[in-house]
Amino acid sequence: MTQRKIISGVFIQLKPPRETFEARSTKWWIIFIIILATLAIVLGGLVLLAASSNSGIGLQVVAYTFLFGFIILLASSFRRLKLKEGTMTVNRSNAFLIIIFVIMAAISFAVGILTFSNFEQATSLSSALSLGGIVLSLIVLLLYEGYPILSERGSPGFIAMSGLLIVFAVVYMTAISWWIVPYDPTRLDVGPYGAPPQEGFPLGTTALGQDLLSRVIAGGGIMLQVAMLSVVVCFSIGVPAGLAASYRGGLVDRGASLVMDSIFAFPGLVLAIAIAAMLGPGVTNMALAIAVVYIPSYFRVVRSQVLTVKELAYVEAAVALGARDRDIIFRYILPNILPSAVVVLSINFADAVLTAAGLTFVGLGLPVDVPDWGWDLTFGSHEYIAGKWWSITFPGLMIVILALGFTLAGEGLNEVLTPKLKE
User: Rounded to an integer, what distance in angstroms lies between the CA atom of residue 260 and that of residue 265?
Assistant: First the structure.
């Protein structure tokens, strides 16, 4: 029977795939190159914006973060060379890279403090230099160190890398946003009211005369803070709760599962709105409202994994040898369930971003004077009726791009960390 023939049955029809694994990987190569080109365009655009920024030192900020990334690249190259020569162990090479990161972050804080005498401006500049340099360095390391590893997994590796590059690019743009924007994002009357894209205002202006480009660049800060804090809370509560309850079993497991299923029964956005309405506005309150909604996701995934792992032979052998419960949980069970929890964490970022935008859209976010994509969607929805499409299109596009980046990273990591899916 030739490869082209179809094996048919009564209920199934088996057919060889039309594309080989290499062909599918080639397609992802093309998509990955497109994302790299887009990333280069975004970074180049930030450089052009920085040259005429409202702060006056935008170009210096971008140049410093690029220098930060270049130094990390040199340190990573030196690390790889020493590992290849065998003159440095893996642990020492990792410690060397971490020390370089710490030194560069300390220099960033010193630069910010020496640049401004005002404490608020000095702190803001130090944070922008440190966070921007670290994120840009992660982009460099992902391309230099991560590519050989992820490329071995074919298309899942390219999916994960593409998602991470999108996320890091948005985070980098947000980290240095206040120093590269052409206008103050909170300032009114910087241009005509509700003007379409034109010279001087590439994305147009809002109904209050605010520059939409400046608000789009700086609008992701609050959303990223809320998403990060909520995911940390979810992970810190959901994983230990699922691990302890499922390992203990009995009444504890049934009680915890009942509570989590009760929370999971409510629609996520509706429950988040109800909790946020009770807690009031604020980054912490929004994060807590989102965290309550998604804790059951971690609990259920971890619980199902623990119920499977604790019945395996090596865990039973550890019990037979008299190992303590603490050692069994942290040495034998936890390392084997962490990949699943990490995948849920990465996908949960996308859910948190969309939920945070929904909370702000219904008026449960931060005050209106804070640049935020959710607020721009809220006000833009009223202006859209009058034909002002730009006021809602660009903030909505940024939310979609950020959520897409987290989703691609989560789906790619799921297949990379679960080799059986490739089979």
Answer: 9
Q: What is the pTM of this model?
A: 0.82
CATH number, residue 152: 1.10.357
Q: What contacts 388, CB < 8 A, 6 or more positions away?
A: 194, 196, 204, 207, 380
In angstroms, rounded to a whole number, what is the distance separating the alpha carbons of residues 132 and 111?
Answer: 14
- Looking at the structure, tell me whether residues 235 and 365 fall in a common domain: yes
List the domain range (segments joined by +) for residue 255: 219-416
Is the Cβ–Cβ distance between 115 and 47 less than 8 Å? no
Please give the DSSP secondary-structure letter assigned to residue 419.
G
Kindly state the tokens that stand for 120: 């608020």
The DSSP code sequence of 302-315 is HHHHHHHHTTSHHH
On whether residue 115 sits in a domain, the answer given is yes
- Is residue 181 pLDDT above 80, yes or no? yes
Structure confidence by residue, pLDDT tens digits, 197-213: 888 888 888 888 888 88
Residues 224 and 165 in one domain: no
Q: What is the DSSP letter of 14?
A: E
At residue 190's C-alpha, the angle toward residues 187 and 192, to 5°, is: 130
DSSP bridge partners of 13:
8
DSSP state of 324: -
